[in-house]
Amino acid sequence: MRISVLSLHTSPAAQPGQGDAGGMNVYVDQSVRALAAAGHRVDVFTADPGGLDGTGSGRVGGTAGTDAEAGMSAQLQITDAITLHHLPVGATTKDELADAIDELAELLNDRPDFRAADFIWAHYWISAEAALRAHEKASGSTGTTGAALGNELQVRAPIAVSMHTIGAVKNRDSDTSHERPQRLEAEARIAAEADLLVAATPAERRDLITELQAESDSVVVARPGVDHSLYTPDSQSAARERLGFADDEAIILYVGRMQFIKGTDVAVDALAELHERNPHLASRTRGILLGAASGVGVEAGGGAVRPSSTYLRELTTAIAGEPSVEVRPPVPSHLLVDYYRAADVLIVPSRSESFGLVAAEAAASGLPAIASAVGGLPEIVEHGHSGLLIADHNPHHWATAIETLLNDTDLRTELAGHAADRAERFDWGRTVAAVLDALPERSCASSRRSEALGAC
């Protein structure tokens, strides 16, 4: 089967943990590789303002095609079965890209690789809206060429959508209203018009149905996977030696972008609270924040909406005032696994989280997590069995959980073993199989979007 995967606002080759790159980038990269391993031909389309690799260089592993700097689409051959295409759009931010969706739709329709797809899998609302508009524009085309294209898409490829995050859910979980109305309106339309909605967990499936009024039979649960060839338990001492950590240190690890929705402030405040309540334990504890600042729109805190730059300034001040906290830049996966193995506890204080891929990777590596009891995190962390769940974001409660685990080696070891066992359920091959098995037939009659357009 020929499959087009859309990851328009961020390239799957970008380094997770900074800018707009996170778990979704890993999801797209790994699911695409699983599709190729199953024998499918995959074209991945991005319009990441940073280029193919999200850094502006437009260079990742593979063979470079045309040069984006020359004003043409760039592409990289990742494997024989996977091609990564960059669409040339003048947007420099995710918000600007959201305002260029019509242009993105036209660029997609101009690409034979996109038009040849038997199935389209769009990731995030910008990609989904662009895919739907591309089909709408093609169906409404006039003229000889346009008519031929329109006829081609009368029987068109089904569109599956993975939201990854839902604007209404982010507003609900963070008790804010800072998501753009454009996004909220688009996501409701996507839920009504896409052929298939892919939820990472049953909790996300409920959100798609209750928050976006999606039809229950249009939503499939396909849990994300973990690269078990990489993320495996191994010697903590050896990993610490490679990273320069002492064996007698207690290492608390945070992995991901530094932003309000991820609860980075909770992690810092919890470590400061630990310093106040147990100075002796805190003196041998190091908090490693592995990530970079993220967010340029509007964030919130303390019940009041405020610019993200204010949040980041306050976060920077808090980090500077807590000697046990060290910020390190995000690292590629082959180095990240060493951090998981070297740490004693992972902390995931997200205010909203559709899944929580870092918790799954850590679990597979034998690292238990203290995580927020939100979204998909309870799918990964079973409270008291493979980690601990915290029902709120009060730093006192997080510090208590950290203190409990650091003072009980036997409990940490028990939780780590159960975490690794629980992580076995997360497999990328099963992820893509669940999506493919749920696809409607490639026919006009099976397409809700085609019916809405009156194409049948």
Describe the secondary-structure layout.
Layout: E1 2-6, H1 23-37, E2 41-46, E3 63-64, E4 74-79, E5 82-86, H2 94-98, H3 101-109, H4 112-115, E6 119-123, H5 124-139, H6 143-152, E7 159-162, H7 167-174, H8 181-193, E8 196-199, H9 202-212, E9 219-221, H10 236-243, E10 250-255, H11 264-277, H12 279-283, E11 285-290, E12 298-301, E13 304-307, H13 308-320, E14 325-328, H14 333-342, E15 345-348, H15 357-364, E16 369-372, H16 377-380, E17 387-390, H17 395-406, H18 409-423, H19 428-438, H20 448-453
Parallel strand pairs: 1-2, 1-6, 2-5, 6-7, 7-8, 8-9, 10-11, 10-15, 11-14, 15-16, 16-17
Antiparallel strand pairs: 3-4, 4-5, 12-13
Helix pairs in contact: 1-19, 3-5, 5-6, 5-8, 10-14, 11-17, 15-18
Structure, explained:
With 456 residues, this protein is α/β, with parallel strands linked by helices. It has two domains: 2-225 and 429-453, Glycogen Phosphorylase B (Rossmann fold), CATH 3.40.50; 236-426, 3-Layer(aba) Sandwich (Rossmann fold). 43% of the residues lie in helices and 17% in strands. It contains 20 helices and 17 strands. It has helices at residues 23-37, 94-98, 101-109, 112-115, 124-139, 143-152, 167-174, 181-193, 202-212, 236-243, 264-277, 279-283, 308-320, 333-342, 357-364, 377-380, 395-406, 409-423, 428-438, 448-453; strands spanning 2-6, 41-46, 63-64, 74-79, 82-86, 119-123, 159-162, 196-199, 219-221, 250-255, 285-290, 298-301, 304-307, 325-328, 345-348, 369-372, 387-390. Strand 1 (2-6), helix 1 (23-37) and strand 2 (41-46) form a beta-alpha-beta unit. The longest helix is centred in the N-terminal third of the chain and has 16 residues, at 124-139. The relative contact order is 0.12. The model is unreliable at 58-72, 142-154, 296-307 and 443-456 (pLDDT under 50).
